[in-house]
């Protein structure tokens, strides 16, 4: 069995091999502090989740243990970004909701990220920017669906 060097790979394969490292670099280069990255992740998970979000569901979406998610939620409640509410479908359950301040913080993050995107892609054509934005958004949605399917098949 022979090993193929990257110089022998077809260009499309080389590009596909760079997806993981590129996504890792994007995460590391995000224009925010580590605290902001965590807040942005939590606020987006809760806002984008279909249906109600519990601490357990948040933990699963973030890929962390429930006690970690619980401590994170407690801190964000103390900061006024989240609130606990009774589930509309089962009053015994507690769900998480964004407060007005949490929604404002989420919007602030989105604006910062848009501004960074525009600066980073300043040499791109408007068409390239829009095409990339649409494809990245599609990739994110498809990755979420794939991840949920993988989790369901493990259960």
Describe this entry's structure for a reader:
The chain has 155 residues and is mainly α. Helices cover 66% and strands 6% of the residues. It contains 7 helices and 2 strands. Strands 1-2 form a two-stranded antiparallel ribbon. Helix 3 (34-48) packs across helix 6 (100-120) and helix 4 (55-62) crosses helix 5. The chain is globular and about 60 Å long. The model has no long low-confidence stretch (mean pLDDT 87).
Number-wise, the strands total: 2
- Uncertain residue segments: none
Q: How are the strands ordered across the major sheet?
A: 1-2
Beta-strand percentage range: 5-15%
Backbone structural class: mainly alpha
Shape: globular
Mean pLDDT: 87
The total of helices stands at 7
* Biggest sheet features: 2 strands, antiparallel
Compute the separation of the termini in Å: 37 Å
SSE series = HHHHHEEHH
Radius of gyration: 19 Å
- Helix content estimate: 55-70%
Descriptors:
mainly alpha, single chain, 2 strands, 155 residues
Provide a concise account of the structure shown:
The protein is mainly alpha-helical. Helix content is 66%, strand content 6%. The two termini are 37 Å apart.
Task: Compile the SSE list and pairings.
Layout: H1 11-17, H2 19-28, H3 34-48, H4 55-62, H5 66-78, E1 82-86, E2 94-98, H6 100-120, H7 126-154
Antiparallel strand pairs: 1-2
Helix pairs in contact: 3-6, 4-5
